[in-house]
Amino acid sequence: MSDYSPHRFCTAPLLDWSDRHCRYMWRLLSKRARLYSEMVTTGAILHGDRQRHLQFDAGELPVALQLGGSDPRELAECARIAEEWGYAEINLNCGCPSDRVQSGRFGACLMAEPDVVAAGLSAMRDAVSIPVTVKHRIGIDDMEDYPGLTRFVEAQAAIGTETFIVHARKAWLQGLSPKENREIPPLNYDMVYQLKKDYPQLQVIINGGINSLEECQQHLQRVDGVMLGRAAYQTPALLSQVDSVLFGENEGPDAAQVVEQMLPYIERELASGQRLNHITRHMLGLFQGLPGARRFRRHLSENAHKKGAGPEVVEQALSLVTQAA
C-alpha cells in the first residue's frame, strides 16, 4: 500500500446522486477513491427509515457518511450509529446553501457559528473511533474573506479536527439558489492553498470546479487531496484512471467491463425489490465521448423504467456500444 493520504482523491457528497448504487459503480472504477454518501440529516437517521438512509454494499467500502445537523447530542448519536453500520468516516456538512438546510440550522449557515460547529465535531469525536471531518465553503455572505475562513478553521482545529474539505467558493445564503451557489460565486483556489500553507499540520482537501485528473495533479502540488463532484458523476470513466495516475497503481476497468461487473449487482438488487432505472440512471455517462454513447444512454433511458425491466436491458445497451466501436 502506498503512504498517500486516504483523502488524496475523493468523490463529493451529491444530493440525489451519490447514493449506494452510484457508489457501487464508482468503487468498481477506483479502489482508492474515498467515497462520500449523500448528506443525511440527523433527524432522518434518528426518526426516519434508517435502513434506507444508511444501507450500503460492502463492495463500496471505504465509505464516509456526510451528516447534516448542529445539535451535539444528535450528531454524536448518529456518528455512533454510523460507526456500527461500518462507515469509515463521519463528515459534517457546513457547505450546503439551501433554504431547507438553513431553517434546520445546518449546512453553510454554520460557518457563521464556528463554536457551534466545534461543539458538534467534538461530541462526535468523543463518540466514535473513526475519523470525523468537516466540509465547508471559503466563506458566506459578507463574512470577511481570509480572516473569516481562518477563524472558522482554527475553532475546529482547536478541538482536534485534522481534515478540512474546502469548497473554494463563497456561499450566498440570500439571493442565490443552491444551483447558482455552485456556479456563480467565483472560485478562489488561492485561498485554499494559503490555508494549507499557513496550517501545514492540517489535511486540506480542495473541492469545486475540478474537471480532470490533470487539474487534480496540479492541485495536489499545493494541498493534500482533491474532491470531484459533477465531473465524477457526468464522466465516471475518468475514475478508472485515478488509481494509476494519482496512486501509481493498476488502472481500473474500462466502461464496458464496468457494465459487465454491474450485472450481478443489478440481479441481486432487482431480486430484493429495487427498480432497474434507480441503478442505471447513474450509468448513463459511462461511455461519455465514446462511439455509441448516445445509443447506450437512449436505450437505458427509454427502457430501464419499464415494468419488469431486467439485466437484459443493460446487456442490450452495451451491445449497441460494442457495435458502434
UniProtKB/TrEMBL annotation:
This enzyme's EC code(s): 1.3.1.91
Residues annotated to bind FMN: 66, 135, 167, 207-209, 229-230
Family: Belongs to the Dus family. DusA subfamily.
EC supergroup of this enzyme: oxidoreductase
Protein's job: Catalyzes the synthesis of 5,6-dihydrouridine (D), a modified base found in the D-loop of most tRNAs, via the reduction of the C5-C6 double bond in target uridines. Specifically modifies U20 and U20a in tRNAs.
Location of the DUS-like FMN-binding domain: 12-318
Pfam families with a match to the protein in the record: Dus (PF01207)
Native organism: Microbulbifer variabilis
Keyword Flavoprotein recorded: yes
Catalytic residues (UniProt): 96 (proton donor)
Site (Interacts with tRNA): 93, 179, 182, 294, 297
Alphabetical list of PROSITE patterns matching this protein: UPF0034 (PS01136)
Cofactors, names only: FMN
CDD domains: DUS_like_FMN
Keywords, alphabetical: Flavoprotein, FMN, NADP, Oxidoreductase, RNA-binding, tRNA processing, tRNA-binding
GO molecular function, one term: tRNA-dihydrouridine20 synthase activity
Keyword Acyltransferase among record annotations: no
Reactions catalysed, as given in the entry: 5,6-dihydrouridine(20a) in tRNA + NADP(+) = uridine(20a) in tRNA + NADPH + H(+); 5,6-dihydrouridine(20) in tRNA + NAD(+) = uridine(20) in tRNA + NADH + H(+); 5,6-dihydrouridine(20a) in tRNA + NAD(+) = uridine(20a) in tRNA + NADH + H(+); 5,6-dihydrouridine(20) in tRNA + NADP(+) = uridine(20) in tRNA + NADPH + H(+)
InterPro entries: Aldolase_TIM, DUS-like_FMN-bd, DUS_fam, DusA, tRNA_hU_synthase_CS
Name this polypeptide is given: tRNA-dihydrouridine(20/20a) synthase
